[in-house]
Fold this protein.
Amino acid sequence: MGREEKRVLADIVLGTVLFFAALAGVTYFNWYVLAGLPLLWRMVLMIVTYLGIAAGPALIALIRRDKAETFGFVRGGELRQILLGAAIGIGMSLVLTLPAHLAGLGSWVDNGKRYTLWWQFLYELVYCVGAVGLAEEFVFRGFLYGKLRALSRSEALPVAVSSVFFGLFHFLTGAWIQMIVTALLGVLFCELRLRIRGCTTLSLIFAHGVYDLLITVWASLLL
């Protein structure tokens, strides 16, 4: 292994360690501090702290002066990328989430959130896209996938490893079955970017966010 490969491997290890350390910190902060704060503070800090889990990989990328293209970001046609991502998110929801509700199995895809006011859904959109989608897609399909791709001549290793870590990411918030399902979703997100022309990491941020948003929408309206 050459010097450059060792540097990339060190970036992967350090970025992963920093990410999971931040995840643990944010999780316990939400459990023991955030829950006791006023609503407005909770709304703001939920977004800020979630973005914080991506701080370690982002800092490494800045120090290394990595190009945005390395992580799947493409300049130009941003609106098209966003609209494509939103369409993908809606399509995923129509295939993976809504049928479960229509079949009376909504509890299988329920996130526990119940909203009735328009501003709650608007906030959920901002949170799902601007915090969850942005942080998770940058870390897993951006940083981790991009760094692994630099070490591998094939797509299989980056897809598999980034998806496994995407599943493990949910170990603090879900059961083992959720980790498996999430890992499979990670594979799907990777394949969507590889197979759909013009699909970028920006597209996946919106696809991920819209998909998560619609989980709440269906649960609130149909359960």
Q: What stands out?
A: The radius of gyration is 18 Å. Residues 3-222 form one domain. The chain has a mean pLDDT of 93. The chain has one domain: 3-222.
